[in-house]
């Protein structure tokens, strides 16, 4: 299924998702290549909200650029399989070897602003991520490891603890939404 159909079929959870879906569809009409970061205004990314089997904890990384506890995710870099990207990024950023998608369906969507920053000695301009999020599950007993060029810690934490430890105000709102959606599933 193509991105346009996936977005058209998605049922927004709240006003934020409704507006962001509308904008994503509009951007698809206005921009040639939203699947590569070479589009310096906006590009698609995929993220994961990784929970334990009991759905009481979430796996987070301490992100070096943002100096905050965060979910895992990354750029599509020309790929069009969002779920595969979310799983790949989760494994790369946390070191977990086994992670399972709880659904092939999109769990959440959001447009996220990214402030300009230096990455590996190169300036990255302010832009937005057109982000699609998937709900994944992993065994919290698996060994984890950091990805030194991106994060400096990996930890399981309670759902509320993940909100408290996140230092980015808008991301706390997004993570609260994800927790709310998770809790409504149970």
Provide key terms for this protein.
186 residues; alpha+beta; Nucleoside Triphosphate Pyrophosphohydrolase; 5-stranded mixed β-sheet; 10 strands; 31% strand
Question: What does this 3D model show about the protein?
Answer:
With 186 residues, the protein is an alpha+beta fold. The protein has a single domain (3-185), classed as Nucleoside Triphosphate Pyrophosphohydrolase. It has helices at residues 3-9, 15-30, 82-94, 159-165, 169-185; strands spanning 42-51, 57-63, 68-70, 72-75, 100-101, 108-114, 117-119, 122-124, 127-137, 151-158. The strands form 3 sheets. Strands 1, 4, 5, 6 and 9 form a 5-stranded mixed β-sheet that branches. A 3-stranded antiparallel β-sheet has the order 3-2-10. The chain starts with a helix and ends with a helix. 30% of the residues are buried. InterPro entries: NUDIX_hydrolase-like_dom_sf (IPR015797), NUDIX_hydrolase_dom (IPR000086).
Topology:
Layout lengths: L2 H7 L5 H16 L11 E10 L5 E7 L4 E3 L1 E4 L6 H13 L5 E2 L6 E7 L2 E3 L2 E3 L2 E11 L13 E8 H7 L3 H17 L1
Parallel strand pairs: 1-9
Antiparallel strand pairs: 1-4, 2-3, 2-10, 5-9, 6-9, 7-8
Give a brief rundown of this model:
This protein has 186 residues and is an alpha+beta fold.
- Supply the number of helical segments: 5
| N-C termini distance | 28 Å
Order of helix and strand elements from N to C terminus: HHEEEEHEEEEEEHH
Structural class: alpha+beta
Mean pLDDT: 95
Shape summary? globular
Helix content: 25-40%
> How much is the radius of gyration in Å?
16 Å
CATH homologous superfamily caption? Nucleoside Triphosphate Pyrophosphohydrolase
The low-pLDDT segments are none
Please name the CATH topology.
Nucleoside Triphosphate Pyrophosphohydrolase
**Number of β-strand runs:** 10
CATH class: Alpha Beta
Please give the largest β-sheet: 5 strands, mixed
Q: What fraction strand? A: 25-35%
């Amino acid at each position: 299924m193509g991105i346009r159909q996936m977005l058209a079929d998605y049922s927004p959870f709240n006003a934020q998702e409704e507006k962001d879906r509308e904008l994503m569809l509009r951007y698809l009409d206005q921009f040639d290549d939203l699947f590569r970061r070479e589009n310096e205004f906006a590009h698609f990314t995929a993220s994961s909200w990784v929970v334990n089997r009991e759905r009481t904890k979430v796996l987070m990384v301490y992100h070096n650029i943002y100096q905050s506890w965060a979910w895992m995710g990354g750029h599509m870099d020309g790929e069009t399989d969002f779920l595969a990207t979310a799983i790949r990024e989760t494994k790369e950023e946390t070191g977990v070897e086994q992670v399972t998608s709880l659904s092939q369906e999109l769990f959440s969507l959001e447009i996220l602003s990214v402030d300009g920053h230096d990455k590996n000695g190169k300036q990255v301009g302010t832009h937005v991520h057109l982000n699609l999020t998937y709900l994944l599950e992993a065994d919290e007993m698996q060994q984890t490891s950091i990805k030194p060029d991106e994060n400096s810690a990996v930890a399981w934490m309670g759902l509320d603890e993940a909100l408290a430890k996140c230092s980015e105000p808008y991301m706390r709102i997004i993570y609260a939404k994800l927790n709310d959606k998770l809790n409504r599933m149970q």
